[in-house]
Amino acid sequence: MQAVDTAFVLICTTLVILMTFGVGFFYAGLVHRKNIISMITLSFISFALISLQWMFFGYSLSFGPDIMGIIGSPDKLALMNVATDGEKLPEMVFMVFQMAFAAITLAIVTSAVAERIKLSSFLIFGLAWSTFIYDPVAHWVWGGGWAQQLGVLDFAGGIVVHICAGFSALALAFVIGKRRGFGEYSLSPYNIPITLLGGAMLWFGWFGFNAGSALSVNAVAINAFVVTNISAAAGTFSYMLTSWYYGKPSSLSMISGTIAGLGAITPAAGFVGPLEAFIIGTISGIICYYAL
Description:
Structural class: mainly alpha
Distance between the termini: 46 Å
Radius of gyration: 19 Å
Helix content: 55-70%
Strand content: under 5%
Order of helices and strands: HHEEHHHHHHHH
Oligomer: single chain
Low-confidence stretches: none
Largest sheet: 2 strands, antiparallel
Number of strands: 2
Strand order of the largest sheet: 1-2
Mean pLDDT: 93
């Protein structure tokens, strides 16, 4: 069974890595023509940067032995004392699965700097943000920190990934300011097919994101897989129908609802059933429409 679980989590890790690049395509279609390549590149850079940061000290800060509920100890720096075998899921497999989560979280934040950041600045920001924001939050919620000790439940990253990335992106947008030309001329998306491709990659990869968080081939993983799809479908239709009520639905409204449903079900995927997932997805699609 250990070999089966290892293979399952490694496959799910691959799906989450695919999502990181999917984020790049999703954002790329929403910007000006001249910035498409730079948006995709930021996701590639996010993955490469986090791969090294996580190896040297990110994993240790997040999942090393707890220090006062705040941060992990340096026991696992450079992946020292991280086993590649054992009777249960090898820690090295868990490490690389969590690395994929850290990478996609940084990629999500790139939306806030679309079309207005230099590569050198992003590298500095990405390293600092992952070290001082993501790693501590991951430790608080998943690594034995104060939030986990209080009983906080976050099955697959609603807090650690989506809330952390969302508020970080909001703060970053306030600091950097609006895109050049905002309010002066149309900044409509340049290439919707690229965005739809990115959205498809995200929907596909999200099954690994949520089901893989069970860390085993079991009933929890099966349930997470099913409710993830239900919430995504419900979000797709609730957003689309809401936009239809006010005018003509679009492909962008469809995929925006899908992402809303996927994001909303993530922290609860291991704890709720199909009907609850439908309700969560439906509400998230409607709220996302009015928020925009």
